[in-house]
Amino acid sequence: MVVKDAQPGNLPAETSSWVGRHSEVERVRRMCARSQLVTLTGAGGVGKTRLALKAARLLTSRFRHGVWLVELSPLHEGGLLAHAIAESFRVPGHPTRPVIESVAEYLSGRELLLVLDTCEHLIDDCRTVTEALLALSPGLKVLATSRRPLDLHIEQVVTVEPLPLPVRTARAAPESDALTLLTVRAAEAVPGFAVTDTNRGDLMRLCARLEGLPLAIELAAARLRELPLAELTERMDDRFAVLGDPDGARHGTAPAGRTEPTEPTEPPWHRALRTAVGWSHELCTPPERLLWARLSVFAGSFDAAAVRRVCADERLPREDVPALLAALVDKSILTWLPTGGGERYRMLDTIREYGVHWLHHLGEEPELRRRHRDGCLDLARQGGADWLGPDQYHWYDRTHAEHDNLRAALEFSLTDKEGTAALDLAGSLWFFWCACGLAREGQEFLERALAADARPGRARSRALWALAVVLVCLGDREGGAARAVESLTAAERDGDAYEARVALSAYAAAKSSAGDLEAAEAAAGEVLSSHPGAAVLCPGELPLATLLAWCSLGHVYLVRGELDRAVDVVGRMRAACDRRGERWMRAYGDFFLAQAELKRHRPAAARRHARDALEVKHRMHDSLGIGLTVAVLARVASAEGQAERVARLLGLADQVWDTVGEPQAGVTELITACQECERRARDVLGDRGFRTAYEAGRAQALDEGVAYALGRA
After folding, report:
1. Cβ pair 243, 275 in contact under 8 A
2. Residue 460 CB: number of other CB atoms within 10 A?
3. Distance separating alpha carbons of residues 185 and 221, to the nearest angstrom
4. Which of the listed residues 133, 159, 185 is the one where a domain comes to its end?
5. Which residue(s) pair with 337 in the sheet?
6. pLDDT of residue 232
7. 3-class DSSP state for residue 71?
8. Residue 490 in contact with residue 453, Cβ under 8 Å?
9. Is the terminal CB of the chain with fewer CB neighbours within 10 Å at N or C?
10. 223: DSSP letter
């Protein structure tokens, strides 16, 4: 769906009421208005993220290009930091330069606030990336949260303190922020709860015991569903006395049949937070504790199906998982996230850290990480097998929702020397890299997997042709052709007809883009003349090799001016896609038809086909497809004499090309056509008028620009 007038950005909606910290919010807001870098530091659970998001929401109107959040807690590898930032802006990157350069180029002409949440575990990488982006992007400001500063000379540090505690001797004194938060959250847990003369003492004592830490207070308030306030306070006093000694309480459960090992080292948290989290852990049932520990292998959010697949076994029966998840939500261990794709869950970083400690303590971490990896591999394989069919939007949404988990699984696979999981996973995600705007990230993972594992086999052949297609998408035709040949050689050596055929079609695509029409036609013809059964992985599957070959031939015929042949081959491709309900490759068919209609001097028909293609490409965030179709719409506008629209659409297209790689994927004919559009528009508007309209398109938020290209704005 295209959003017309929404403020650019990706801040999540507030899910609970805001309590206190008004002066801190105003201070952070003022500092962000005048400083390039503001970092909120403080102990875990003190409320850094919520404070940053509250201030950021109040700053949205100050930044023309929006406020953007990048959550870093799911990342385990600093090398992915630039990719995570690029993904927030939908900046896929360039095949031959660092992603950070593509991000900096994208940001260079924009005024926006970047919120980097949870930097401490990637502190060196955050320091380097932040310094580079701020040096190259004068309109950029960064608001970071971290348990320690980034240590940059331009950094303004705000230490986030616990909430003020109530004054114990003044019954009529104004309620403190800590007491207010406890009361509000208690009322949410127990409807009708209120502060009275009878319970005020217990509430004040509980706030003091928890030292005003918001997360500790919220965890304690959730327990009021089960315990009266007086009993809760008394138990917390006992728990705090035990935890005053770090070698004290034991709050885990050893696996059945195993002698419980010694207590693991506690996370380096504030003592009050350790009290609240440890006590919440202690009051969970043994199955709830075990699930808490096992859930810590997930990065980002997850759904119940993934939990059953990864966490369930004879100790945690599958049928018990829904009730256990609900119990952990009730105890504020998990956050419930209703989404358009179904219910998902998320664990706060501090809670996850505790779970990781216990998973390691129980000796289950390697096994659970393998289960998590295998679940992601099953997802990738199924997505790759189903992609060229009626459920593409579903698979886009599903893999996008699991992006953090897929990254974590890939990183784990790259450290696991047994088997070919890294190659298998990276190659099976070919559709995610090529069709969903993630070509640069795919290039990095595929190259790392290929470098780490040289063993022959289907996994390697597939990773090679997947990399070939990725490189063609990024405009590196020579690299794409070389990887395709390597894949073809390996597949033929292994006697793998399916992988060999896809590799040959990738070679045809690379040669077609490079303008080697004879080589492209020969390779595509060989793919299409081979036995159809060799292309089918599953009965009824629409073969990727056939679609790539049809695309290559369509381009060859268009460049040669053989329009009837081009329309015929593209028509066959679109008909095959329609029979399967496939959209992604069909949209490329619409792109080719738009070009054919332009050559036939039928701009209205060309516009219809180009807009149909753009609808699909934008829905899937296919940056290559967006750039190509917007440029065709600029040519349509030129054919209809709309010079200002031409300039604005060319600016929008160049915004996309700055992030993808080579303009027009390096295809000479498409580059020449756009240059001719620009020349005609300049003749009408003059250089100054052209530049004004062009810059308006180039600086426009992508969603708004696409709405304009589609005729909706």
Report:
1. yes
2. 23
3. 6
4. 159
5. 344
6. 81
7. strand
8. no
9. N
10. G
Write down which residue in 319, 343, 363 finishes a domain: 363
* Residue showing tokens 């059945």: 256
Indicate whether 73 belongs to any domain: yes
pLDDT band at 481 (very low <50, low <70, confident <90, very high): very high
pTM for the predicted model, two decimal places: 0.82
Cα distances from 630 to residues 275, 434, 638, 656, in angstroms, run: 57, 18, 12, 9
Residue that is written with structure tokens 């959550």 in the block: 71
* pLDDT over threshold 90, residue 190: no
The predicted-structure confidence for 115-127, as pLDDT tens digits, reads as follows 999 998 899 999 9
- Parent domain of 675: 604-713
In a domain, 652, yes or no: yes
Q: What letter represents residue 52's amino acid?
A: A
Single out the residue of 609, 584, 635, 576 nearest to residue 434, CA to CA.
584
For residue 545, the Cα-to-chain-centroid distance in whole angstroms is: 28
Q: Which of 591, 604, 616, 611 is nearest to 673 (CA)?
A: 591
Burial of 258 (0-12, 13-18, 19+ CB in 10 A): exposed
708: which 2 tokens?
Answer: 């304009």
Put residue 437 in one of left, alpha, beta given phi > 0 → left and psi -120 to 50 → alpha.
Answer: left
d(CA 404, CA 300): 6
Give the CATH number, domain containing residue 100: 3.40.50.300
Average pLDDT over all residues of the chain:
86
Contact 472, 510 (CB under 8 A): yes
- pLDDT exceeds 60 at position 533: no
Q: What is the CA radius of gyration of the chain?
A: 28
Question: How many domains does one find in the chain?
Answer: 3
